[in-house]
C-alpha cells in the first residue's frame, strides 16, 4: 500500500475522496510516478482531538499544503467582552511552522457562553426568582416595582431592567346612573443608561363573573360601513359604554359629505366629527367637553396623546396625511435621558380592526394638500385641527 493510501486511514475529512486503482500494468511498462497532490487541494481535520500537531505533520507529509479549521466563537468569548484565543494559538503556530495555509471557518455558536440562559426577576427589591421559559405570567399588585435580567451559563448577567406598573381605575356613570368601569395601565420602564419607555394602555372593564378584563372596543359589527369618520365616532363613544350602530351615528350625529364625483368619497371634517361625538355624549348625559387640537411639533403632539390616554380617554386622530380617521387607545413612547423622544408607536382602531403604527406611519401632520383643497372647495374651512379627545385642560 502506498504511503498516501496508508495515511488516509489516520485522517478524518469533511469530504469523501474516492481513489480508483486500475488493473495491473503489462510487463515491461514504465513505472508509475509517485502519487502527488495538487497544491490547490487541501484537507479538513475534525475539531477536537484530530486537530493536533501530530495530525498536521501527517497531513503535511502526505503532500497537503492547505488545511481547513473551524473556530467557534463561544470558545473565544466565554465571558462577554473577554476574548481568549489560547485554545487555537498552539494549533495555528504548528501550522505556521509547517508552512501550511489555514482556511478558518468561523462559527457563531451561542456567544458569550450562552448555550443556556435563565431569566430572573424580583418584586419591590425582594429575592431574585428564576424561570427558564421564554415568557412567564407574574401576578403583581398595583404600583409594583419589577426588576428583571438574564444570566447565561457563564454567569454573565445582562443589564437589569426596571419597570413600575400602575393601574388606575376610571369610573363613569351613564344617564341611568350605572357605573362604567374602565382601567388605564401605565408601565414605566427604566434602563441603566437613563433611557426610559412608558406604555399607556386603555384596557376596558373588568368582568367579575369570569374574572377577566375585557376590551372596550367591542362595538357593533355587521352594520354597513359609512366612512372612517362615522366609524371613529362609534369606536370612541364605546369607551363610555355607548353602543350605537353606524347607521344611527351617521343619520343622527356625525355629518358626512358624499362626494359623488370623487368615486363616492365620504368626507368628514374635524369640525363635523367633533360636533357629532359631542352630541352623542350630551345625549347620554355625560358631562364632558371635547377638545380639538393641532400641535405643530412631534414632541407636542405625542405628549398630548400620552396625557389624554393617561387621563383615561382615547384620542381620535386624522391620519394618512388627512385622508383617514383612526382612534388611538395605547401608546409606547421611548425617551432618552434628556426626555427627547426616540420612538413612538400607537395602537390604532378603524374599520379594518386594530393595528400598531409608528408616528411616521400615522403621517399625522396636515399641511396644505389635495384633501384640504377639496374641503375648501365644498365649503369647509376647519380641516386643519386633527386630534380630538376629552378636554382635560391642557
What's a quick, concise take on this entry?
23% of the residues lie in helices and 30% in strands. It has helices at 3-8, 53-61, 73-76, 86-98, 228-238, 246-252, 270-283, 298-311, 359-362, 370-377; strands at 43-44, 66-72, 101-107, 117-123, 129-131, 144-152, 161-173, 179-190, 196-202, 205-207, 212-214, 257-259, 265-267, 290-293, 315-319, 324-335, 341-350, 353-358, 387-390. Strands 4, 5, 6, 7, 8, 9, 14, 15, 16, 17, 18 and 19 form a twelve-stranded antiparallel sheet that branches. A three-stranded parallel sheet has the order 1-2-3. It has a two-stranded antiparallel ribbon with strand order 10-11.
